[in-house]
């Protein structure tokens, strides 16, 4: 337990020091965001490295340092992939970089007609671009999650979310993404991101998320 605490303290100090680093203080907002995302990856990697070292009775500081280096590499890769996806996808696609994964959110109202799970022809090119990016960065796991609003029966929404997630997964696979990398998940109406009491909120809840997770 003592080793784990030491490792967590070490990487926590590294993360806190980011905000006082001259590279952070003098950079533009975009450069600051990229810098913090890389630091976040390094800190996450450091925590994982510290945990591995403690579990194997190894040197926790060495483990944290090795993990931090791996985390920084992952963070840098995600930054590059994010920039490329923003360049190649339409403006209606939302991309979030959390430092340890990318979340690409596509509104279902754009992807599908009402009550349909056939992807619209004009949106297939966006999914082909996502597949190209996934093929360029193959060392990741891809989760495709379908979400609905709460209109109608919960059982119907669950099935619809599964079918829509499956339709998106199929297009990614058709464009060369290995099926072994792709996990298809239907969440139904259970994970709302906005209120279902307004049309705008329900529209936000109807979405497909492609979560890109770097492999450890």
Explain the overall architecture.
The chain is α+β, with helices and mostly antiparallel strands. Helix content is 56%, strand content 15%. It contains eight helices and five strands; from the N terminus they run ααααββααβαβαβ. The chain has a five-stranded mixed β-sheet. It starts with a helix and ends with a strand. The model is unreliable at 2-18 (pLDDT under 50).
List keywords for this structure.
single chain; 216 residues; alpha+beta; 5-stranded mixed β-sheet; 5 strands
Provide the helix percentage. 55-70%
The fraction of residues in strands falls at 15-25%
Described by strand count, sense and barrel closure, the largest sheet is:
5 strands, mixed
- SSE class: alpha+beta
Number of helical runs?
A: 8
Q: Could you give the topology of this structure?
A:
Blueprint: H1 2-17, H2 22-25, H3 29-55, H4 60-88, E1 94-97, E2 102-107, H5 108-111, H6 124-136, E3 140-147, H7 154-174, E4 182-188, H8 199-205, E5 207-214
Parallel strand pairs: 3-4
Antiparallel strand pairs: 1-2, 2-5, 3-5
Offer a quick outline of the entry.
The chain has 216 residues and is α+β, with helices and mostly antiparallel strands. Helices cover 56% and strands 15% of the residues.
């Amino acid at each position: 337990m003592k080793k784990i605490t030491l490792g967590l303290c070490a990487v926590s100090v590294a993360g806190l020091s980011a905000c006082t680093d001259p590279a952070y203080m003098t950079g533009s907002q975009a450069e600051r965001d990229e810098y913090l995302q890389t630091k976040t990856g390094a800190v996450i990697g450091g925590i994982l490295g510290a945990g591995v070292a403690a579990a194997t009775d190894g040197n926790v500081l060495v483990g944290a340092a090795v993990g931090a280096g791996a985390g920084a590499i992952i963070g840098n890769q995600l930054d590059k992939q994010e920039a490329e996806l923003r360049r190649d996808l339409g403006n209606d696609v939302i991309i979030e970089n959390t430092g340890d994964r990318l979340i690409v959110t596509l509104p279902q109202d754009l992807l599908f007609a009402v009550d349909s799970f056939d992807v619209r022809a004009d949106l297939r090119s966006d999914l082909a671009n996502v597949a190209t990016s996934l093929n360029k960065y193959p060392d990741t796991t891809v989760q495709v999650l379908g979400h609905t609003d709460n209109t109608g029966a919960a059982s119907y929404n669950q099935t619809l979310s599964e079918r829509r997630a499956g339709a998106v997964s199929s297009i990614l696979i058709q464009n060369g993404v290995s099926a072994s990398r792709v996990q298809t998940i239907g969440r139904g109406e259970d994970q709302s991101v906005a209120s279902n009491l307004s049309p705008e909120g329900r529209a936000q809840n109807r979405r497909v998320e492609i979560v890109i997770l770097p492999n450890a």
